[in-house]
From TrEMBL:
Reactions performed catalytically: O-phospho-D-serine + H2O = D-serine + phosphate; O-phospho-L-serine + H2O = L-serine + phosphate
Cofactor: Mg(2+)
Protein name, entry field: phosphoserine phosphatase
Superkingdom per UniProt: Bacteria
Biological source species: Mucilaginibacter mali
EC number annotated for this UniProt entry: 3.1.3.3
Alphabetical keyword list: Amino-acid biosynthesis, Coiled coil, Hydrolase, Magnesium, Metal-binding, Serine biosynthesis
GO cellular component term, pick one: cytoplasm
Cross-referenced PROSITE patterns: ACT
Coiled-coil portions: 55-82
Pathway annotation from the record: Amino-acid biosynthesis; L-serine biosynthesis; L-serine from 3-phospho-D-glycerate: step 3/3
Annotated ranges, domain ACT: 361-430
Length: 430
């Protein structure tokens, strides 16, 4: 009895609805293009939300397209750049689970296969519709005998396939939920990284804002150790929206508040604040989940910087109030959270480690006392874990170690590293 992962294509594997994008390519010179774009989008949403049968929606959209093979080539190029961020960074998962991953879509093989093939997904595991063309290469219809062109098509297909094992469905639309409703799959995960449809989310077993979240809750290998959507980014003060756009793209859970309150700071992993709204040293000491502060302005006191350092909380600030800090601060925060880079921090020792492929990266922050590095390496040696790269920097308060290892390990290793005396903070990056 195996496991199977049934993954939708449009607005799930990719950020967009492919037929909507195809219309923008094929109709770009049409005098009524905006009106037709809206019609196609309305048909898409109506079927995805369960207000119109999929068969009716598909027929209406294809009829409006006026597309040909050349337009499809342009679409494929476009879609390759629109793969959902969290799917893209977890390409190794698809390689390692090539036999269990199935793309099941009401879209069309002509544009799906070239996009997902780059992610090690087998051609025979791609189930979708196929276009019909005339002699000049114009789309004139599609194969209506394919169950995926019909209402309830995904249910019909899975009944025919008769897969044995636990089946998980991941998608954004009503046709994906129908698999759960039919009893054919174990769990349905409403995928909301690109669009959130209320009628679908309400019926899901689990809401997954990213593929990282899906992998995390199912204890599957993933590119990052902890989904960003589970990390709260508290925003207080006058912070430019451009800075928050970068954090949203990374998937962080943004929370705006008028002032820094203890209960919200204690839930946050990231704090963005301006010069007039900074936490007290005592608040930072009590914020056990806090990892990084991005201050859009100058840190008000040396005590705050030192207290944060002693608590293992890094601060990036902009004492010159550079107008480009809307880009500078979030990039520094993201580089620290993703790769452990501390360059330009005002309270941590400087470290810019190169990214190592096919390795796991662990961060250990500890009080600057002799012998900690030896204790860290003793844990790895005892568990026969090979170190491929290790970096240590210090300041008078802390030691900051990044270790890259090239093998798997059990949770006992992580617990032992956390338990080393004088440890302040420890985390697995990827």
């Amino acid at each position: 009895m195996g496991r199977y992962y049934i993954i939708d294509f449009d607005s799930t594997f990719t950020q967009v609805e492919a037929l909507d994008e195809l219309a923008r390519i094929s109709l770009k010179s049409h005098p009524d293009r905006e009106k037709i774009y809206q019609q196609i989008e309305d048909y898409t949403n109506a079927s995805m939300e369960g207000r119109l049968s999929f068969a009716e929606s598909l027929a209406a959209r294809v009829r409006l397209l006026e597309a040909n093979r050349d337009h499809l080539k342009q679409l494929v190029t476009h879609l390759k750049k629109k793969v959902s961020t969290s799917f893209s960074r977890n390409s190794v998962f698809f390689k390692n689970h090539a036999d269990e991953v199935l793309i099941v879509s009401g879209g069309f093989k002509e544009f799906i296969i070239p996009v997902v093939a780059e992610y090690h997904i087998k051609k025979e595991n791609i189930y979708a519709n196929t276009f019909e063309f005339d002699e000049e290469g114009k789309i004139i219809g599609y194969d209506k005998s394919n169950p995926l062109s019909q209402e309830g098509g995904k249910v019909k297909l899975l009944r025919e396939m008769n897969l044995q094992g636990d089946i998980f469905g991941i998608g954004d639309g009503y046709s994906d939920f129908q698999l759960k409703e039919s009893g054919l799959i174990k769990k349905f995960f409403a995928y909301t990284e690109n669009i959130e449809r209320k009628s679908v989310v309400e019926k899901a077993d689990h809401i997954t804002p990213s593929f990282d979240e899906f992998l995390y809750i199912n204890k599957l290998p993933r590119a990052i150790s902890y989904p960003k959507n589970r990390i709260k980014c508290l925003v207080v003060g006058n912070i430019d929206e451009e800075a928050l756009v970068q954090m949203r793209k990374e998937g962080y859970n943004i929370r705006h508040k008028e002032q820094i309150e203890d209960k919200y700071l204690q839930e946050a992993g990231v704090l963005f604040c301006d010069e007039a709204n900074q936490p007290t040293p005592e608040q930072v000491e009590a914020a056990g989940r806090l990892k990084v502060i991005g201050c859009f302005g100058k840190v008000q006191s040396r005590k705050l910087a030192d207290t944060a350092c002693a608590a293992g909380v890094i601060i990036f600030d902009d004492p010159k109030s550079n107008p480009r800090n809307t880009d500078f601060i979030p990039k520094r925060v993201i580089a620290f959270m993703n790769e452990g880079k501390t360059h330009t921090s005002c309270n941590f020792p400087d470290l810019q480690p190169p990214r190592v492929s096919n390795a796991h990266r662990l961060i250990h922050i500890h009080k600057n006392v002799p012998g900690i590095l030896a204790k860290i390496n003793e844990v790895f040696a005892r568990h026969n874990i090979n170190i491929v790269g290790e970096f240590l920097v210090t300041n008078p308060q802390i030691g900051y170690v990044i270790t890259d290892v090239n093998t798997g390990y059990d949770t006992q290793v992580l617990e032992e590293l956390k338990a080393i005396e004088q440890t302040i903070k420890f985390r697995l990056l990827y």
